[in-house]
Amino acid sequence: MKNASFLIPLLAAIILFSCEYQPSEVYNRTVNRDVTPPLIQAVELNIDADTLYLYNSMEIKFQFQSDNQEINLVNFSIDGIDLGSENSGSGTFQLQTGQLAVGIHDLVIEVYTGSGTGSLADELGVEGFVASESWKLVMMDYYFPEISKTVENGLLKIKWKEYRASNFMEYAISRSGPHLNDTEIKRVKTNEFIDSTYVGELAQYYVQAITRENIPFSGDGLYLDPDLPQIFYSVEDSNKYLVRWSKSKYYNAIDTFAVYQDIEYDFNSDNRVMATRDLNDTVYQVTGGCFGDMQYFKLRLVPRKTNAGYFPESYYWFQSTTWGFLGLSFRYPEGWPYCFPVKNDEFVYYDCNAVKRYSISQRRDVETLTYEPTGCSTCNFVITQSSNTGKYLTSYVDCDRDILFTSGTELDNYSIHSLQNITLGSHPAIAVSDTGTAIIQHYDGGFSLYDLSASAPLGYYPKNYFGDYAQALKISPSGEYFFVSADTLRMVRFRNGQFTDAFKLAYPNNIKFYEFDAVHPDRVIFWDGSTLSVNLCSDMSIVREVELKDDALLDIDYYNDEMLTYTDGHLLVRSFSNGSLIKDVPVHFNPTNWTEACYLVNHTIVYGKGLLYFIYPD
Q1: Strand 570-575, strand 216-218: pairing
Q2: Which of 79, 203, 274, 342 suits 494 as a labelling partner, its CA being 20 to 30 A distant?
Q3: DSSP string of 516-529?
Q4: What totals of helices (H) and strands (E) does the chain contain, helices first?
């Protein structure tokens, strides 16, 4: 029963007798007969609710007030069990919730007051009013404000379990993160909050329910990993380098998206190169830097409103990073820098454990050769070589004991040759021709011509032919001519089982580049630092001469009539026919070092470490 009050009148006939005194006058006590029931108010209990929510380990203090009648007694019962009475003029009673099991209970409270009539019965406490109230008690376990998050209109919104006990005052929201340690940021009455300062950085939120007793109830909090826009680096075929990023979930909290670029070779390059507030502007086209450079990029977010954890000097908490090389990658730019052209469009490259064939036009590996070594755990392929046209490849395998011989266009079509008795543990590069003829260097200084296709020796060239030491260097596609380093640089011809001296340079010579033509097997190319000469092998007659005064001649693409040179920080693509400049590509590395070698294949500069630069991007 709720708000049920009634008057209990008692007629007390009290007759006073006195043996000594007789009253000379009659005394009549003033009695107020128009008394209204008292107004009972609950000071610390929501008496207007039908259901009360309580938490474990709470101490609930009931205190009632009456407007004009004094409270004489408060009686409590739960689930029909009398908990006792409290003789308190203020109507105070304390309930320990730990005594109650989790679940629903019935609470009845009766408040007894005087009648307020001023009668003797009122004075003696036998006349008065009683107010009876009943509630449903929902006894809950401990309060933990489990926090969840959503994104609403580009802002972070957190919500947590409602505190339902009647002693609730407000929620205190605290946050920790970069340069911020458990700092209170807001107090609210509802169980949700929108943080318009959060842009996606590392953060942790805590919520406390504050009660009238100033006792906070809190939980484990909400931990937010960084949720910044993802940033990507990409390379297009046209030598165009782009930085892209995803749209931020918290776009309405962000003032500026700023892109910073750091070039590997420029220590002062960590500067902002782009700043935008446009949510649809998510691309930056890279400028600056050179082919082969490693670059770092940072996307920094500047909060629109004051963020207690944001400081310009600690921007790294508010940024996403990526990096990349200027150049299209065909492998991670490291490892063995050796590449060999295979016909017009392809080249092979190798690392410790595989030989791969790459197609320029398809922009991918088209074949991979793997090989399991026997009896050792070193690299599977060592000192790989190629014929001028890439028709055949050679490599040391099996702890450098055996020689693998394979087709440049069918890598799986290979054979293994054991020639340790000739090399005797040394491992010179094995030059090979398009006919399968290979130069096998002897440990004593001479060399043999060996037919790898037929597994048969062809001839032996002793060291004492021309001086104490003779080393074969390169062989023509036909297998008929080869260069020998002895007393000077010689070109030797092998025909009908006989070695003859075809050409001998004066000693000392100034030849900086010499190579057999891959497309015209009867031609040989020499370059002395100022003139490039194309000669016939048979009589050394000059086919043509081209002025070429660059610092180094790196490679010739015979199929496309182009050559690659280097001068003072520039890769230069020139016409092989007349030496005219086709493309100037600045670089910060030195391709004359073997670890940074470059090649030219199908109008493309191949940086042996793993990058491509296209000469005709359009």
Answers
A1: unpaired
A2: 342
A3: E-SS-TTEEEEE-S
A4: 2, 51
Of 306, 389, 293, nearest to 348 by C-alpha is 389
Angle at 135 between CA 132 and CA 140, to 5 degrees: 150
For residue 63, what pLDDT band results from cuts at 50, 70 and 90? Answer: low
pTM for the full predicted model = 0.76
Q: Please write down the HEC assignment for all residues of 101-125.
A: CCEEEEEEEEEEEECCCCCHHHHHC
Cβ-count burial 431-451 (b if 16+ within 10 Å, e if not): bbbbbbbbbbbbeebbbbbbe
CA–CA distances in Å: residue 212 to residues 43, 59, 61, 170, 609: 11, 12, 11, 9, 70
* DSSP-assigned letter for residue 462: -
Residue 53: what pLDDT? 83
Among 336, 418, 340, which Cα is nearest to 379's?
Answer: 336
Provide CB contacts within 8 A for 23, sequence distance 6+.
none
pLDDT band at 47 (very low <50, low <70, confident <90, very high): low
Dump pLDDT digits (tens) for 433-478. 999 999 888 776 778 899 999 999 898 887 766 555 667 789 999 9
pLDDT higher than 90, residue 3? no
Angle, CA 117 vertex, CA 112 and CA 122 arms, to 5°: 55
As a whole-number percent, the residues of the chain with pLDDT over 70 amount to 81
Asked if 608 and 338 count as a contact pair (C-beta separation under 8 A), the reply is: yes
Sequence length of the chain is 618
List, in order, residues 6 or more apart from 17 with CB less than 8 Å away: none
Mean pLDDT, the chain, whole residue set: 83
Q: Using alpha carbons only, how large is the chain's radius of gyration in Å?
A: 48
Could you identify the residue written with the tokens 């109230």? 133
> Can you tell me the distance from the alpha carbon of 556 to that of 553, in angstroms, rounded to the nearest whole number?
8
Would you say 525 and 515 are in contact if contact means Cβ atoms under 8 Å apart?
yes
H-helix or E-strand spanning residue 422: helix 420-423
Q: Residue 558 above 70 pLDDT?
A: yes
DSSP 509: -
Please give the Cα distance from 101 to 270 (Å, whole number): 64
* Calculated CA dihedral for residues 44, 48, 52, 53, nearest 10 degrees: -70
**Per-residue pLDDT, 339:** 87
pLDDT band at 321 (very low <50, low <70, confident <90, very high): very high
Tens of pLDDT, residues 187-233:
999 999 999 999 999 999 999 999 887 778 787 889 999 999 999 99
Query: Residue written as tokens 């990526």?
Result: 322
Residues with Cβ within 8 Å of 301's Cβ and at least 6 positions away in sequence, in order, are 199, 200, 228, 229, 248, 254, 256, 257, 258, 318, 319
With H, G, I as helix, E, B as strand and everything else as coil, classify residue 98.
Answer: helix
Q: Residue 506 corresponds to which tokens in the numbers above?
A: 């004066």
- Which amino acid type is present at position 507? Y
Share above pLDDT 90 across residues of the chain, in percent, rounded to a whole number: 45
Q: What is the DSSP letter of 280?
A: T
